[in-house]
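agent> Task received from the user: take the single chain below, predict its 3D structure, and emit structure tokens. No templates, no multimer pairing.
agent> Plan: (1) validate residues, (2) run structure prediction, (3) serialize to tokens, (4) report one or two observations.
agent> Step 1 OK, no nonstandard residues flagged.
tool_call: predict_structure(input=
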Amino acid sequence: MTAVLTGFLLAAGIAAIPPRATPHPEGWEKLYQSQSKKTWISAVWLARDGSWRAAGPGFIVSGGPGPVKTTDLGDDYVTSFGEDMTGVVMAVGGNQAIWEEKDGAFQRVHERAGPARKGRAAHEDVLDGIGYFDPEAPDRLVAYGTLHLSLSRDPEGTWKPSNNESAAKVGTLGTDIHPPSGCHIAGWHWIDRATAMFECHEGLAFLYKKGTTLAALGRLPKPCQASLIGVTARDDEVFVACGDPAGIWRTGIKEAAWSRLPGVRDVTALKARDRCLLVGTRTAVVRRCD
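)
tool_result: status=success, residues=290
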């Protein structure tokens, strides 16, 4: 998935105009609409204060009480958002790039030294996520890509290559656990630093939290067993994006019964927080709040 998305983003162009929020079917509110069919919303984020972020090839857009702001990334692209323990929003992407939001704008604070590599070598420099996944130092912020690529932020705020491959392994493959009987783990999806969902080759899904399997989520919908794009959760609900064209399914943790959310398709990214669910599609960002 990462290689396909990376190749697409490296080749994509962008021309986007952020409108004011507009009504959308089935309770969805459209926050952003691209004017280019080449644009792909690759990542979204809901901040602690309820504001939102979204990214695509060459840009990050930020929305809140005021007008939407755009940060031009040039030829760079974002694969994922995250935040540190103080609530500072961050983004990671190709060429080992890391951005931190400061004074209302994203600033690049790290990238691979030397010229950007091309072709297959460029994929080895893609950061896929950011979070607190270092088993040796749980409060150390880590950005990770392949099983051998990880960067850590030191107390002075400087990002440096890490020789600790276990952080990249945990970020990519998850915590080493004994899965429930009848489950052979096929994929691991972190929701926050302590919570994740893992799915099994047998089609089942489970919620993991702080060293234990918290809940059985039942059998995933058939489209999700073939292609699972993203996972997020809030309170007692779990949401997954999957299928082609991709849609969103939800289940309550206690009920373990998946149902599709209407009104949105071509989903590329999603993030839930508090009462809201933020979704990126091929060309738009929409939000639904209960």
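agent> Step 4: summary for the user.
The first helix runs from residue 2 to 11.
agent> Done.
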